[in-house]
Amino acid sequence: MPELKTVGLFVVTALAEILGCYLPYLWLREGKSAWLLLPGALSLLAFVWLLSLHPTAAGRVYAAYGGVYIFMAILWLWTVDGIRPTTWDMVGSGVALTGMAIIMFAPRGP
What we know:
Blueprint: H1 2-30, H2 37-52, H3 58-79, H4 87-105
């Protein structure tokens, strides 16, 4: 069950980061309200806090988190931007998630 908790925490962390970057993007590129910067900043603060909740070494967490971020960014591309991922997007996401699983869940010696 700790594996499920870890992956779930990675997913929430990735959503916080993506949202924290997407809202300023809407202001800068789409001409939306500058008020979007406030929830964007709060989302990035949540992202940093969520990364700190992982129970392993920071470098390992950052490396493994990258795999989940890739998957979530492709999912965002599909659900928010309305662009269907290519086969290669899906293969790349699968490779990234496999790398995350190896980094986070491989047996460790003393």
